[in-house]
Amino acid sequence: MITMDEVRILDLNAEYLGVSTSQLMDNAGKKVAEHYLVETDVREGIVIVCGGGNNGGDGLTAARYLLESDEVKKLKVICSFDEDGPKTDLAKDAFHKLESMGDVVDFVHLEHGREEAQLEVHLRPAKAVIEAMLAAGLRGTPGEPFSTIIHMITEMMEVDEPPYVVSIDAPPGLGTDIALIPHATITLHDVKFGMKQENSGEMIVADIGIPDKTQSHVGPGDLLRYPRPDDDAHKGEGGKVMVVGGGPYVGAPIMAGLGALRAGVDLLYLAAPRAIAFQPTLTTYSFIPVPFSQKEDWHFLDTHHVDEILDTIKRNKIDAVVVGCGLGEETNTLEAVLRILENTDKDVDVVVDADGMKAIVHDVDRAIAAFTGRKAVITPHAVEAKRVFMATEISPELERFGEDSMEKDAKILAAFAKHLHATVLFKGPTDIITNGKKFKFNDSGVPRMAVGGTGDVLAGVVGGLLAKGMTTLNAAALAAFLNGYYGQKVFERKGYSMMTTDILDEFDITDDLAYRIVAEECYQD
User: Which of 268, 264, 267 is nearest to 254 (CA)?
Assistant: First the structure.
């Protein structure tokens, strides 16, 4: 069972993979016609009721395939739109194809104020009705003329010899007081959220050719999950992230911070050694410095710094903490990481990257306790993953990792994630993301992304998306896709001269980004 939001994501990802939305509509119409011809022997008196959107386009396409079958010689199409055609380009194309078949199709365009009279003449005598009025998942009570049509079809189904009534994808008005309950619903790809036999009749799932990869892999469609700010949003409501990093490695926490900002957060706090936190260039990026105190010449994270970091997190109501980038592996540093994880309020999300993974190995039981009850993501590459594997009590199970298929690796990582109570974003040629229950693969990226800093950017983007309210699985998957996608874009221009800062400069998350990516891919093909 899937929601309509997920349907839109799958449609875009299918197009990205080379299966166009027009092909999906054609497949849908063909499947509806095929199922209709199997489910009923009614071949005359068929009326198809079409709205002006893509659901109507499915109905128009089904009409064409019914007529092409030679079993149906003539049918009637009642249109909620005028003679210029439906609203969407895809539905318009379906309309013109059906229109070109000539007088085997009787089109009835409903006219404002005359709808009920037209329906009495053209709909009520029907022996079969195929309904394609409204998109599945359309919220709210259906308006006119759809409510009148629903009432009339419902009355028609109550007579002694009712017409056979079938809906395409989902019945109109599902979940409202004005809803059609058809004899059957031919639902496309999967049952839609809220559908059951009591409100949808017999549910027939039609395979319309959406590739399996649209669900197993993250793609541009997943950008539709990106949280858009309200028009009246105030500073801080778009997310506040703290990066805890730096010491022996200067650039890592800066890259992570920039990644979080590129993900669209409002405020970025950098907890790092003073020499890093107060770099003059960081003021350009609106970093808020949280310098480690310099007692006894500390230039790395120490247990003495934990209280001030925790206080800053609490006082500023930080949404997500990214910890580990460039910290090094001093024993006191690893202990400090564990204390930060243990003592940060559970409503603060955490991302553990790079040297933070060594803190998990340092005391895996404490790390698990710290992850339990909160949104947590770890981002290991192969070497880091195996170190953490071997620290867990399920390590024998994990020794097979990398020896078989990606699917088996994903199942091993899922067991690992479940044990840790954290989502795992495993970085490899194909990234594997799992929360212990579900998993996603990501193919975006290029080998040159082995350049230092790209993993830090990724951790920051994950933290940024978490701070904006995304789930751990969706945040990690989308971050992996975006990081890899922009890496590909830069590599096309700069090749092996590409640097991590080039990827950051390329980031461009806009409302139409998903559609632009799909359009670019299709144009190149």
Answer: 268
